[in-house]
Amino acid sequence: MVFFAVSLGFSVSMPFWADAIYLRWLSELACYFVMAQMWNLLGGYGGLVSIGQQAYIGIGGYALIVLANMAGINPFAAVLLCGVAAAVAAMPISRIVFRLHGPTFAIGTWAVAEILRLLVANTTVLGGGSGTSLLALRGFDRATREAITFWVSIGASYGSVLLVYLLLRSKFGLALTAIRDSELASRSQGIDVGRTKFLVYVISAFGFGIAGAIYFLGTLRISPDAAFGVSWSPLIIFMVIIGGVGTIAGPLFGAVLFFALSKVFEDFGSWYLTALGLLAIVVTIWFPKGIFGFIEDRYDLRLFPVQRRLRVRSTP
């Protein structure tokens, strides 16, 4: 908690002394933190492996356009509402995709994202297939815009970690991990499996909606392919797998590693993506729990302890 508070204070001070390029980079990295945490909550702890969470990235991004450009709401204040919009949209969608199981669930979530992409691409008021720009930020000078975007993104990243930690330390977290391990055994212990899966799906959508809004708040432009593109899924899953599925620190480590590799080797084009794929294969084979998951087990290093330990009390 001390490290958490000190690092947060350090981050908040950065717009006063750091270069703009570092603020933009860290804002992007903060978005990856949120996405990785939310996917890990859904797939790593909840056992709901989705390859269509880009649906809520897109909903969050386009909700920002609607709220800021059309409704006149302050774009920075609208970020939280974008998460709410994604969560509301996830409620009826969950009723559809939860009829599917295993691989068909994963494919179903991707199909939903593609349907949304096509719907938005054919909606003229949202810019159609070419997309549109976030015009509501024209009244802010560049330095102010980048500083506030950075603060919002940092707040979202720290908030996502705290949210996941508190959820996993609660009875809801116990129910979630129990369902991941065995739905049948969970039902036999009185856990409401359907309600728990519904809640974790909506919470994950909320986080993805906020991350999508922040990401396009930084890029200032959105298009259906950029918002709902399937390319989001492998990148997010890569971060979680590399770092460690079913841990809180693992996705953070994976996001930092992915971000660093993308900035260093992005000029290599398709070879860079091939290298990421090979790295994911190597880690999956040699480190099934991810790199940070291996470190946690090897050195018993728990940065975010959420496990329960049995304490046997001696009787007098």
Automatic annotation (TrEMBL):
Gene Ontology cellular component terms for the protein in this record: plasma membrane
Keywords of this entry: Cell membrane, Membrane, Transmembrane, Transmembrane helix
Lineage per the UniProt record: Bacteria, Pseudomonadati, Pseudomonadota, Betaproteobacteria, Rhodocyclales
PANTHER family: ABC TRANSPORTER ATP-BINDING PROTEIN (PTHR30482:SF17), HIGH-AFFINITY BRANCHED-CHAIN AMINO ACID TRANSPORT SYSTEM PERMEASE (PTHR30482)
Main location group: membrane
Lineage top rank: taxon: Bacteria
Membrane topology: Multi-pass membrane protein
GO molecular function: branched-chain amino acid transmembrane transporter activity
Protein name per its UniProtKB record: Branched-chain amino acid ABC transporter permease
Subcellular location per the Swiss-Prot or TrEMBL entry: Cell membrane
Positions of transmembrane segments: 44-65, 77-98, 118-137, 149-168, 198-220, 232-259, 271-295
InterPro entries (UniProt xref): ABC_transp_permease, LivM-like
